[in-house]
Specification:
about 290 residues; mainly alpha; 2 domains; two-stranded antiparallel sheet; 8 strands
Length: about 290
C-alpha cells in the first residue's frame, strides 16, 4: 500500500485505502503472530500519531468525552471533523488533527506519548493491527480479517523478541469493551439494507448521528421531547439510560433498527401506531381519488 495513497484525507482517501487492503493485504487470523514493540526510545515514537485518518466509533466518542469532562456535543465540535461525499451512506467521524502545528499531530499526543492513553480510540489501541470486512451482497457472511499496517517506516517491527498473536495483542491493549460495543454498531453499518445499495436521507443521517455519536443530545431528545409518550420503552431501560452512557448507546442502536429498517426492536405505542396507520390510509385514499 503506497504512502501517497495512505496520506489522502477524507472519504476518498479512506475508500482508496479500503480497496487496497481488500486487494493486497495479507489476511491474518486471531492466531497468526507478528513481532512488534513500541516505546519512547524508538526514533519514530509518536510519528504514527500525526497526519493520519483516525475514524472514530460511537464508543470512542463516549470514552473520550468522559475522559475529558466534555459533553458529546462539545467533544464533537472541538475534536472531530465530519467529511462528506456524494456516495456516502453513513456519517463518518474523524479525529481532528492539529493543523496549526508542523506534521498535523493528534491533539492528544504529548512528548511522553498519548495523553488519553487509557481511553484512546479503537484504531490507536489496535495499531499496528487493522481489521477489515469483505462482506458484500454476494458474500454476506464473508468473515472479517486482520492485517498489519506497515505503510510508513516503523521501528517497532524491528524489535525482535517481542512476538504476539493477534488475540494476545488485542487482550493486552484492552480492546474487548470496544469490540463488544463495536459488534452492536456493525449490525447497523453492515446491515443488508446498505449492502443492497440502500442509503439514508439527510434527516435519517442526522438521526443516526445523534443516536450513536452525540449521546448527550440524544438523551435530551428522549427525555425532553414527546419520545417516551410515543414509544414503548421498558421502565428499567428508562432509568438506566438517564445516566448510563453505554446503556443509552445500546438503546440508540435498538431505536435505529426500528426507525431505519422497520425492525421490531423499539415499538410505537398502540394508540400512536393506530393514528399513524390511519393517517397513511387517508393519504393513500386521497391519492387514489380520480383526478389526483
Amino acid at each position: 500500500m503506497s504512502d501517497e495513497r495512505k496520506r489522502r484525507t477524507g472519504i476518498e482517501g479512506m475508500d482508496v485505502l479500503k480497496e487496497e487492503i481488500l486487494a493486497d493485504a495479507k489476511r491474518l487470523t486471531l492466531d497468526d503472530s507478528f513481532s512488534f514493540r513500541c516505546h519512547r526510545q524508538l526514533a519514530c515514537f509518536n510519528k504514527c500519531c500525526a497526519d493520519v485518518n483516525i475514524v472514530l466509533t460511537p464508543y470512542d466518542i463516549l470514552r473520550l468525552k468522559r475522559r475529558l469532562g466534555l459533553s458529546s456535543t462539545e467533544l464533537i465540535a472541538k475534536h472531530t471533523v465530519r467529511p462528506f461525499s456524494k456516495d456516502q451512506t453513513l456519517p463518518v467521524v474523524l479525529l481532528k488533527l492539529r493543523d496549526d502545528l508542523p506534521g498535523k499531530p493528534c491533539a492528544f499526543v504529548t512528548a511522553e506519548g498519548c495523553g488519553v492513553y487509557e481511553d484512546r480510540p479503537w484504531p490507536c489501541r489496535m495499531y499496528p493491527v487493522g481489521e477489515a470486512s469483505a462482506r458484500t451482497e454476494a458474500e454476506p457472511d464473508a468473515p472479517e480479517f486482520y492485517f498489519l499496517m506497515q505503510e510508513q517506516p516503523c521501528d517497532g517491527f524491528s524489535e525482535t523478541g517481542t512476538t504476539w498473536t493477534i488475540r494476545q495483542w488485542k487482550e493486552d491493549q484492552g480492546v474487548a469493551p470496544y469490540d463488544a460495543m463495536g459488534a452492536e454498531f456493525k449490525e447497523i453499518t453492515l446491515h443488508p439494507h446498505f449492502r443492497r445499495g440502500g442509503s439514508l436521507n439527510p434527516q435519517q443521517m442526522e438521526m443516526f448521528f445523534m443516536a450513536t455519536y452525540d449521546l448527550d443530545r440524544f438523551r435530551a431528545f428522549v427525555f425532553e421531547s414527546s419520545f417516551l409518550s410515543k414509544y414503548e420503552v421498558e421502565p428499567e431501560t428508562v432509568e438506566k439510560i438517564r445516566t448510563d452512557d453505554e446503556e443509552l448507546l445500546r438503546f440508540g442502536l435498538r431505536w435505529l433498527h426500528a426507525c431505519l429498517f422497520s425492525e421490531p426492536t423499539v415499538r410505537l405505542k398502540a394508540a400512536v401506531r393506530a393514528e399513524y396507520e390511519e393517517r397513511i390510509a387517508r393519504q393513500r385514499a386521497t391519492k387514489a381519488e380520480p383526478g389526483r
